[in-house]
Amino acid sequence: MTVMEQRDTYRPAPPPAWQPRTDPAPLLPDAEPYRVLGTPAADEAAAADPGLLRRLYAEVVRGRRYNAQATALTKQGRLAVYPSSTGQEACEVAAAMVLADQDWLFPSYRDTLAVVGRGVDPVEALTLLRGDRHTGYDPYAHRVAPLSTPLATQLPHAVGLAHAARLKGDDVVALAMIGDGGTSEGDFHEALNFAAVWRAPVVFLVQNNGFAISVPLAKQSAAPSLAHKAVGYGIPGRLVDGNDAVAVHQVLSEAVRHAREGNGPVLVEAITYRLDAHTNADDATRYRESSEVDAWRDHDPVLLLERELTARGVLDEDAIGAVREDAEAMAADLRARMNQDPEIDPMELFAHVYAEPTPQLLEQQAMLRAELEAEAHPQQEGTAR
Amino acid sequence: MTTGTSLGTAVDSAVAVQQTAMAQALNRALRDSMAEDPSVHVLGEDVGTLGGVFRITDGLAAEFGDHRCTDTPLAEAGILGTAVGMAMYGLRPVVEMQFDAFAYPAFEQLISHVAKMRNRTRGAMPLPITVRVPYGGGIGGVEHHSDSSEAYYMATPGLHVVTPATVADAYGMLRQAIASDDPVVFLEPKRLYWGKDAWDPQDPAPVEPIGKAVVRRTGRSATLITYGPSLPVCLEAAEAARAEGWDLGVVDLRSLVPFDDETVCAEVRRTGRAVVVHESGGFGGPGGEIAARITERCFHHLEAPVLRVAGFDIPYPPPMAERHHLPGVDRILDAVGRLQWEAGD
């Protein structure tokens, strides 16, 4: 047959077979954020483990008090700055509670509450923000990475650590925390991609609190939700009401289990709201209406849990009183210890730049020592020259 | 591409020592480090199956497995960022940045975490990471493949910044870098990769530790101070200078951080004249720091200002014009000629 004769029967050869490499359907987040409080799921939760609900309540109340105390300390000049997580306590508390002892937490600068939840001393958790030292705690003591100020940069660390643990055959999950603004950073993308390719046991928790300092989410992302971003990496995305402590606890527990069982990472977006300004140095009235804040005050994580648990009889007035008393005692201790002046040893500035100081640092150290000696004995300064 | 210049060890024994390329010595260093220490992991782009675009990681994945020599997704911040996490968990990652200019996406991780983690955690969390960066020009690379990025790294406290110029140093210094508990930016002069030298992989010659400069040639008239890709050029210049009646010494810095003031100043005090030579641009480049250090320490020994022969302060030129940019023998000798010679010097 000639080409002309073939033309009615000619079909182009199909390209090599193509199909999606992963079925996207099971990775998609639910249409609505998952909720427990005020839904039938609350019956089940209350019946299954009322003790857990009481613990969650005690922790969010302590968390709220901690935020208030730390903010007060900024006004008294005892903290250089405090990025409050008021309104986000359910996420902070649950993130710490769902981890096993050997697991690791990778907090951002707004996550001191989660750090304290891991067992870090509340004063040591604030050392960075007091300004006497960079990181007040030993990361290995409670398996908590230093609070990370550069946005999203701690996420690849979580991936590398979880990957390394898996290579060594250790049962370790890393939970990395980030805000909505941070999801625009390249490191967010790279961390999720590496974790997915390596099937690293990492849970990424995005607290979508509505604002990156002043910039609302609409100017940050055009994604259907931040949880939907997971699908692009071939990992599951989950959407949860971040002010529903029980729901956050359940979703994060499930994500940690998923990761621990070798199924790879999970991205969780918790919808919450930053009730306070970005930090004590910020003025939130410049970029949002008080009516918006008031609406979220009605959906407050502490109130939501208190109402639900009281209505169910899981909490009574005595129990609430005891929890508040405990939170006050924690705040009093924090206040008392933060009111002591930290001791600064200027010579320590050179101590941990390298394993061994370079000759250049030794020279500079000697210069500072001489300056300190001159400061201590000002009357000798003239004769020394 | 410049062919290698034989440096250091002269073969005067009857048994001919094997000729080895710097690339092979680097490969050997990685292999020996991985064999010796199971916590050493290599990661980067194309480092596994391909063995790296320069073949420095050739055979490592086959010998140690993909989990020890890992092809990562193509994202430098992710590579270095995950290496940070691996180091936090007790591994000793060796990261390959494919080319000098491709390392820039990893800058934030390098500056904000790799360099600072020990300090931020008051010594609790050191990061023993080696960042290998093929750097410099002279290989006919198109744009973004020939940068001299050392000044950026030098300006960051917490990093060691080293660069070998000989085959023996390539092996010895990479072993030292991997064994170091501090992060090391290991700059590999890519135009010296295939230069060969007498070097026995079965019996690697010991080398000076990181932080020490080495006098490659002693001279009486003036001292050339250099490192990495410019060392062979300086040695050639020193040889050519004999015809002009100059006896030039050559110091190979090897380590930019820590800096060996002692060796450099001892040489300059002897000769009284110094020229710093590097490919990196002169303005804000390493030579300014080195000249200042020499002036501060050796002022009364100096017969002339310390001069710099550097790359021009321009974006790295296209390959067909790069020879005009790179410091060459003539430009070095011109600088030596400007060292205020007087009759009798």
SSE-based structural type of chain B = alpha/beta
Tell me the fraction of residues in β-strands of chain A, as a range. Answer: 5-15%
Enumerate the spans of chain A where pLDDT stays under 50 for 5 or more consecutive residues. Answer: none
Largest binding interface between chains: A-B, 41 and 49 residues
Percentage of residues assigned to helices of chain B: 25-40%
Average pLDDT over all residues of chain A: 95
- Percent of residues in helices of chain A: 40-55%
Q: Summarize the main sheet of chain B.
A: 7 strands, mixed
What is the level 1 CATH name of the largest domain in chain A?
Alpha Beta
Shape type of chain A: globular
Q: What's the name of the CATH homologous superfamily of the largest domain in chain B? A: Thiamin diphosphate (ThDP)-binding fold, Pyr/PP domains
Please supply descriptive tags for the structure shown above.
heterodimer; A: 385 residues; alpha/beta; Rossmann fold; 2 domains; two-stranded antiparallel sheet; 16 helices; 46% helix; B: 345 residues; 7-stranded mixed beta sheet; 12 helices; disordered N terminus; THDP-binding (chain B)
Question: How would you characterize the overall build of this protein?
Answer:
- The complex is a heterodimer of chains A (385) and B (345).
- Chain A has 16 helices and seven strands.
- With 385 residues, chain A is an alpha/beta fold.
- Chain A folds into two domains: 314 residues, Thiamin diphosphate (ThDP)-binding fold, Pyr/PP domains (Rossmann fold, 3-Layer(aba) Sandwich); 39 residues.
- In chain A, the strands form two sheets. Chain A has a five-stranded parallel β-sheet, with helices on both faces.
- The radius of gyration of chain A is 26 Å and the shape is globular.
- The N and C termini of chain A lie far apart (107 Å).
- The mean pLDDT of chain A is 95.
- Chain B is an alpha/beta fold and 345 residues long.
- Chain B folds into two domains: 180 residues, Rossmann fold, CATH 3.40.50; 124 residues, 3-Layer(aba) Sandwich (Rossmann fold).
- A seven-stranded mixed β-sheet of chain B has the order 3-2-4-5-7-6-12, with helices on both faces. In chain B, strands 9-11-10-13-14 form a five-stranded mixed β-sheet, sandwiched between helices. Chain B has a two-stranded antiparallel sheet with strand order 1-8.
- Chain B starts with 18 loop residues before the first strand and ends in an 8-residue tail after the last helix.
- Chain A: It holds the Pfam family E1_dh.
- Chain A: InterPro entries: Alpha-ketoacid_DH_E1_comp, DH_E1, PdhA/BkdA, THDP-binding.
- Chain A: This is Pyruvate dehydrogenase (Acetyl-transferring) E1 component subunit alpha.
